[in-house]
Amino acid sequence: MTTSVERPQPTEAAPGFAAFTARERWVLLVASAWLVIGLQLDAYAHATTPELETFWTPWHGVLYSGIAASGFTLLWIMRSRLPAIPTYQSLISLPNALRIPLLGMASLLVGGGVDTLWHNIFGIEKNLEIFVSPSHELIILGMVLVAMGPALMMATVPGRTLGFGSAWLVGISALFSVLPLHIYSLHASALGFRHLGTGVAVPNVFSPDGQLVHGYLFSTVLLLVPILMIGRRWPLPIGLPTALVAIPALLMHLMFDSEAPWWPQLTVALAAPVVELVLRVANHLVSAPVTARWLAFGLVAPPAVWGAVLLVGQIQTGTVGWNIHMVSGLLTLTAFTGAATVLVTRSIQFLQPE
Amino acid sequence: MVRRLAVLALVAGAIVLGAAGPASAHAGGLVATDARSRVVAITPAIPGLTVVAIEDGAKLRLTNDTGGPITIGGIDRVVAPGSALTWADSRSTPENKNIDFGRTADWSLPLDANGTPVTVTGVLTGERPPNPLPWWGLAIVAAVAVPVIARRLHRADLLLAAAGGIAMAASVAHVTGSTLAVESAPLAGTFLNAAGINLLSWPLLLGGAWVALRGRPAGLLAVCAGAALTAVFVFPDVTAFHRAVLPFAGPPVVERVLVVLALGLGAGVAVAGASVLRTLAQRAAVAQERAAVAQEEV
After folding, report:
1. What is d(CA B89, CA B107) in angstroms, rounded to the nearest whole number?
2. What is the number of other CB atoms lying within 10 angstroms of the CB of residue B281?
3. Which one, of A29, A28, A108, A25, lies nearest residue A64 by Cα?
4. Which of residues 86-115 of A touch B (CB under 8 A)?
5. pLDDT value at position B192?
6. Which of B4, B8, B16 to mutate to test binding with chain A, by most A CBs within 10 Å of its CB?
7. CA of A57: which chain B residue's CA is closest?
8. Which of A134, A143, B74, B240 has its CA 20 to 30 A from that of A29?
9. Are A63 and A35 in contact (CB under 8 A)?
10. Global pTM value
11. Which of B231-240, B254-263, B276-285 has the highest mean pLDDT?
């Protein structure tokens, strides 16, 4: 049972633990960025060079050294927060802002070990298998949790204002947390290879058209959640929602579809600031409870951005590939998905002691 | 501290980025299999053309001293005159092939030697796989023995440091042997590739043991973390318990012993660490309390 959160209280660092310093936050940000950039470079290399499976590359080097850098950074941050004789219990008792990235590092390392065993026994995954491999999922989960660290540490700082530097830190941390999820949902993404319908007059229920519908819905959720999570804790800095939509879109195209025309992702990147500007203006003009305003954001933003993509697609290619049933239904569904994402994300409660 | 971290990270990055060599499930992309592959004949024999199986048949190496180009059928790679090519060919490799002990399977691949059709033939020979149960049993015994013995020792920290050190030594020997089995890639890059995340676990074990033995029990946590990582990263090589032909430069039994030690002792130290560290913390608290009482009495 959850209730709507109007204004969540800032989390405090656990009693007895030193507050995280700006230096700790930024060092972890650099290390986790190194880690995720390594993944992106590796994904790009594998997407563009299929025979890479048998060759060790600098991209793997960036990825593995990023794991080491993140690991050593977490050890450094953890060291001063453990007692003289640390126990396993003292590790578990660390504050969430440190415990979650540590859990991520554990998931990453265990996933790496399992991945090697998997390859030894069953061979190397290809195409869709890559995205549903259990060991890969552990690795991606680990990356996401490690990359969240700097933003979680920032959230322990009392107060509800986010300075310029802090906004950058939180934004980059959120971006690197969500990027691995965009990459690993390439099979169900509106930021991947396909953006328009196949042109089949009456699309089958189970078909590429059906897959693309779900791609739009999944990308809606992935693009909204970081914005909503940050918006729960601080007033959203101007331009941050745009960055959290435009940058993943452009990077996904660069990594996986750079030979194809840029219009779909450029449309997303240009529609995002327009939607942000309109909603910010409306926010000042309309008086409504905060949850209603967030709900309106969830209802309006996704169909506005995706509608722009379909419109530009019509102009660029001469067809959307779908009829009125599909287009109107898809945009309605993205609006509902946006609203539901808002309601769920803003209703998440902190665990209460029983 | 940040500067030291940055230097460490840059050095690690530079080492890793500077390396080059194949990577896959194991050093050099080699895996444990149940068969060996070898080249039997090249028909017709062409002067200057040699094809040999290397790394127990995982890869083929073609050397072209014929004066003309040679095209490998099926993968359509052209080997220029005066050059050589090493590659893993699905037709000749024992990987992912089930060949029973004592059985053989022939393979062949076509070449075009400057217009002359040539056939390379070879054979895969199945080898006897080991009984995996004793090896698994030894690994489990090692994993259970460490926490059991630790409960009976007053200085269990020394036991964990020693067991962690043995696990690390086994891991280093395992990685070195795996590296030396690779003929088709540079040594340094292959070693780094084979070591992988052990580059993180070895310093943890070594540094942690050093700190712990110098009287700072906090180092024991690093030993436990390093031991856990050692166990996790040697776990993929439990295939050595099940398969006959191992990518290791040495007797297979040595490789299996190394995997048992790294896996069993690594897991054992990680498990035992919980109670050993808790006991050390409790002793320290009691000692502190006694010192406070003595201070008050004075």
Report:
1. 11
2. 18
3. A108
4. 86-89, 91, 109-110, 112-114
5. 81
6. B16
7. B20
8. A134
9. yes
10. 0.82
11. B254-263
User: Are A112 and B31 within 8 A, CB to CB?
Assistant: no
Q: Are residues B26 and A121, on separate chains, in Cβ contact within 8 Å?
A: no
- Within 8 A by CB and 6+ apart from A197, the residues are A203, A209, A212, A320, A321, A322, A326
Q: What angle do CA A123, B188, A136 make, to 5 degrees?
A: 30
Distance from CA of B67 to the nearest CA of A (A): 28
Query: What are the counts of helices (DSSP H) followed by strands (DSSP E) for chain B?
Result: 7, 8
* Closest chain B residue by Cα to residue A80: B218
The residues of chain A scoring below 70 in pLDDT are: 1-16, 43, 46-57, 350-354
Q: Which residues contact B148 (CB under 8 A, 6 or more apart)?
A: none
Return d(Cα B119, Cα B108) in angstroms, integer.
7
Structural contact between residues A350 and A6, judged by C-beta atoms closer than 8 angstroms: no
Our CA-based measurement puts residue B116 at a distance from the nearest CA of chain A, in whole angstroms, of 28
CA angle B44, B50, B53 (to 5 degrees): 110
Q: Which residues of chain A are within 8 Å of residue B185 when distances are taken between CB atoms? A: 56
B206 close to A73: Cβ distance less than 8 angstroms: no
**What does the alpha-carbon distance between residue A329 and residue A334 come to, in Å, rounded to a whole number?**
9
- Partner residue opposite B9 with nearest CB, options A72, A84, A120: A72
Q: Which residues of B touch A121 (CB under 8 A)?
A: 239
Query: Which residues are CB-contacts of B291 (< 8 A; sequence separation ≥ 6)?
Result: none
Cα A173 to Cα A25: distance, rounded to the nearest angstrom: 10
- How many pairs of residues across A and B have Cβ atoms under 8 Å apart? 122
Classify each residue of B23-34 as buried b or exposed e, where b means 16 or more C-beta atoms within 10 Å of its C-beta: bbbbbbbbbbbb
Compute, in degrees rounded to 10, the torsion defined by CA atoms B100, B104, B105, B109: 140
* Subunit contact B21:A73, Cβ cutoff 8 A: no
Contact A83 B274 (CB under 8 A): no
Hey, which residues does B111 pair with through a beta bridge? B72, B118
As a whole number of angstroms, the distance between CA A73 and CA B233 comes to 21
pLDDT for the residue A125: 83
User: Distance between CA atoms of B89 and B93, rounded to whole angstroms?
Assistant: 6
- The C-alpha of A205 sits at a distance from chain B's nearest C-alpha, in angstroms, of 38
CB contact under 8 A, B9 and A119: no
- Closest by CA position to A98, among listed A34, A19, A158, A168: A19
Total Cβ atoms within 10 A of residue B295: 8
CB contact under 8 A, A116 and B189: no
pLDDT score, position B187: 87
Sheet holding B49-54, edge to edge: B49-54, B59-64, B83-87
Binary contact (B233, A54; C-beta < 8 A): no
Model confidence over A209-254: pLDDT tens digits? 999 999 999 999 999 999 999 999 999 999 999 999 999 999 999 8
Average pLDDT over residues B130-135: 96
pLDDT score at A16: 62
